[in-house]
Prior knowledge:
single chain, 284 residues, TIM Barrel, eight-stranded parallel beta barrel, 12 strands, disordered N terminus, binds fe (ii) ion
Amino acid sequence: MSGQQAGLPVNSVGIGLRSVHIERILKEQPEVPWFEILMDNHTAQGGLIPRQLAAVREHYPLSLHCVGMSLGGMNPLDVAYLETVKRMMHEYSPVQVSDHLCFTHHGIHHFNDLLPIPFTSESLNHVSGRIDKVQDYLGRRILVENVSTYLQFQSSEMNEAEFMFELVNRTGCGILLDINNAYVNEYNHGFSAKAFIDTIPVEHVGEVHLAGFEDKTEYLIDAHNNRVSHPVWKLFEYYLQFGHGAPVLIEWDNDIPGLDVLLDEAARAEDIIFHYSESAARYA
Ligand SMILES: [Fe+2]
């Protein structure tokens, strides 16, 4: 795929750029290796104004995260949306561009939820074709993220990890591994999150997400409104045994706390990475 750019710093931990933190970030320029921007937030009313985003970009690399490509949808690809992604790429030179393995549009309806798709050979052909078109249109590789789900399809012929493995083989896309989503699915459906990590091609993981969920007792919701949970930290440690230095994001989208809380979560992730790289070097 042409247009490939150098990646984010190896083993770095970034945080999501949120409008409530922007003044402090611009004033204090905290030591954050990179920020992820949610394209759909920043193009909506009330998002960061372009001048602020350009000022952040002067000091920090950016990763552009999208929710509207609807890679698993049946509607034709939304060319106007992809054009906006392209414009953002041109204006802010994000190091990575990502979206989810889901659909968000159907007919005239647009959904705020990341809706699940069946994992069949037919949908594999369909989604692969759409990822090919998106990558050709944008002129670069994208990362595709595993999502949290609250139902399963009886028609699925493979699991999500096997499906993603095939997507990478067919399209050359990368994987955005959301470890919290893998854990939410383990809790909700009884899938093994470790088996998920074992099955995906970890060498193609271009970014990792760590986030908090909301516990509804019978099920978990991928609410991104909490600190990273203990089981997700443990899974992150498990992933690091096989990981290849992919940059990590602390993802927090609702009930957004002060910047210090996000920096504290990032510092914890950095400590864990440091511990694993030290022990890997010791036994090399
Ligand atoms: Fe995520």
